[in-house]
Amino acid sequence: TKKNTYSNKLLIYHFKLTRTLILPQYNSNNRLKRALTPCLLILSLSACGGGGQTESSTPQQPTFNNYHVTAIDGYLKNADIWLDINNNAELDNDEPSATTSDGGQATLKVPSDINASDYAVIVRAIAGITIDESHGKTISADYIMIAPPGETAVTPLSTLVFVEMQSGNTIEQAIQQVADTLNIPTDAVLG
């Protein structure tokens, strides 16, 4: 096994180190050398986990956190939704993704070593497949919406905020810009 190979290499390295660095300072007739050799060998074996015996261990299973997200342009059912970890606006195989259900709801299973709120959430509505629940029909054209990092509701307004942020604005500045442009209160933009 891999552990056995590693343990054996460690033992050989330790034995060579002991013979070349510690023991040569004593001649072959020296009692200390004869006494230390077995002790160092035993110490080497114990440090290697018993000299070749392996412990069976179960591989660590990855852990995930649920990240609840919603696609809203009317609630969108059967839309692709994902966490854009590499910021390329494309759904990649290693990115947490799901398909929205009733109420535009989806749960992304995010590896526990990733902070989901650090990344944008993207929705891809697909013509003939995605249903706009506000009128119960499939949409007629594909489109994408994006929510800025930390936002879980993906809407046309969150997309406008995201676009403003790409121009260098902070989220607060982007919200204000969208609110001013549409003449709506700032708390209605991402609220």
Compile the SSE list and pairings.
Elements: H1 2-22, H2 31-47, E1 64-71, E2 76-77, E3 80-83, E4 97-99, E5 105-111, E6 121-125, E7 131-132, E8 137-138, E9 143-147, E10 153-154, H3 156-166, H4 171-182
Helix pairs in contact: 1-2, 3-4
What can you see in these coordinates?
By secondary structure, the chain is an alpha+beta fold. It has a four-stranded antiparallel β-sheet with strand order 4-3-6-9. A hairpin with a 4-residue loop joins β7 and β8. The N terminus is likely disordered.
Per DSSP, the total helix count is: 4
* Strand element count: 10
Based on CA inertia axes, which overall geometry fits? globular
Largest sheet: 4 strands, antiparallel
Could you state the order of secondary-structure elements as H and E? HHEEEEEEEEEEHH
Report the helical percentage. 25-40%
Low-confidence stretches: 1-28, 31-51
Strand portion, in percent?
15-25%
What distance separates the N and C termini? Answer: 56 Å
Spatial arrangement of strands, main beta sheet: 4-3-6-9
Please identify the oligomeric state: single chain
- Mean pLDDT across the residues is 81
